[in-house]
Design brief:
By secondary structure, this protein is mainly alpha-helical. It is built from 14 helices and 6 strands.
Length: 290
C-alpha cells in the first residue's frame, strides 16, 4: 500500500509540474522547431552539423526522423528511378497533427513521441525495419543523394528536436515502439493503471479471459465522463478541480482505497504490461522524462 501511495503522489506531482509548464514548453519548442524549419526551407542553404560525436558517422546514412519538406527535397527529388523512390518511401510514415485533431489522447501521445510535429509534418521510419532493409535504403541514398551527408542527417535530427546522443541511444525508436525505458517508479509499482482512458479500459476488460475477472476489475474503478460534474454513480467529479487534462477524456480511475492484496489480485488478472500502462498515462496527458 505504501508503494501505491508513493506512486499516486508521484502521478499528481508529475502532472502538476506538467500542467504549470505546458504552455511555456509548447511555446518554446514550437518556436525552436519553427526556426529550424525556416532555416531548412532550401536544401541549398541547409547547413550540416560540422562537429559529429564519436560513433555518429558509423550509423547508416538513413534518417530515422526528418521533416517532410527536407525529406522530399534533399532525398526523394534526387532519386530519378521511380522504383527505388517508391521502395524507399514505403519504409516511412508521415505524421501530421491534423491526422489526430479529433482525438485529444492521440494528439497528446504523438506530440510526446514526435515533439516537432507541433509545427511541421514529419516522416518517421517504420519501427519494424530490419538491418538488411536499412542497408538497402542507405545504398539508394548514397547512390542518388551524393550531397547528403551525416552532417546533414544530424542537422535534420536537430530540426526535429533530437540530438546526436538521442539517436545513438535509440530514443526515437524507443518512444515510438516498445517504450523500453519506462520510468523506474512505474516499474517498481504494480502492473495496475491508476488512470486509463475509458475506451482502453473497456478493451482491457474485454481481453480478460473470464467474465467474473472483468467484473472484479470494474469494482475498483470509477468512471469519469469528460467535462461532467458527476461520475456515472452520482458522485461529484473532483477531477475537474484537481486536473486539467483528464476532464477532456472519458477516463476510469483506480480507487484510492484499494489494498495491497487487492492490487496484487488486479495485477494477476489485468492483461497489461508496464509499457501499456506507461502509454495509457501519456494518452491521458501525463509525461515523464525518460
Amino acid at each position: 500500500m505504501k508503494r501505491y501511495l508513493i506512486f499516486v503522489l508521484s502521478l499528481v506531482l508529475a502532472f502538476s509540474v506538467f500542467a504549470s509548464c505546458t504552455d511555456k514548453a509548447v511555446g518554446d519548442e514550437s518556436e525552436s522547431y519553427a526556426e529550424g524549419a525556416e532555416e531548412s526551407e532550401s536544401v541549398d542553404t541547409f547547413e550540416p552539423v560540422d562537429e559529429l560525436i564519436e560513433g555518429f558517422e558509423e550509423l547508416r546514412l538513413v534518417p530515422i526522423v526528418i521533416e517532410k519538406e527536407r525529406f522530399e527535397k534533399a532525398i526523394l527529388d534526387n532519386i530519378d528511378n521511380q522504383r527505388d523512390k517508391d521502395f524507399l518511401s514505403s519504409f516511412y510514415s508521415l505524421y501530421d497533427l491534423e491526422q489526430f485533431e479529433d482525438s485529444i489522447a492521440d494528439t497528446a501521445y504523438i506530440t510526446y513521441c514526435i515533439p516537432a510535429v507541433k509545427s511541421n509534418k514529419i516522416y518517421v521510419i517504420k519501427p519494424d525495419i530490419v538491418s538488411r532493409e536499412l542497408e538497402d535504403l542507405e545504398e539508394i541514398i548514397t547512390e542518388y543523394c551524393e550531397d547528403y551527408t551525416h552532417g546533414h542527417m544530424a542537422a535534420d535530427y536537430l530540426a526535429c528536436g533530437y540530438t546526436q546522443e538521442d539517436i545513438l541511444n535509440g530514443v526515437e525508436i524507443i518512444r515510438l515502439t516498445d517504450f523500453a525505458h519506462v520510468p523506474d517508479f512505474i516499474l517498481d509499482g504494480y502492473k495496475v493503471p491508476i488512470v486509463i482512458e475509458r475506451k482502453r479500459f473497456e478493451e482491457m476488460c474485454s481481453d480478460v479471459l473470464y467474465s467474473d475477472s472483468a467484473y472484479r476489475i470494474r469494482e475498483f474503478y470509477t468512471f469519469y465522463e469528460k467535462g461532467g460534474d458527476y461520475t456515472e454513480d452520482g458522485h461529484y467529479n473532483k477531477l475537474k478541480e484537481e486536473f486539467r487534462l483528464i476532464p477532456q477524456l472519458d477516463v476510469c480511475v483506480l480507487s484510492q482505497n484499494v489494498s495491497e492484496a487487492e492490487l496484487e489480485e488486479l495485477q494477476r488478472i489485468i492483461p497489461l504490461d508496464y509499457s501499456d500502462i506507461y502509454i495509457s498515462y501519456i494518452r491521458c496527458g501525463y509525461f515523464w522524462e525518460q
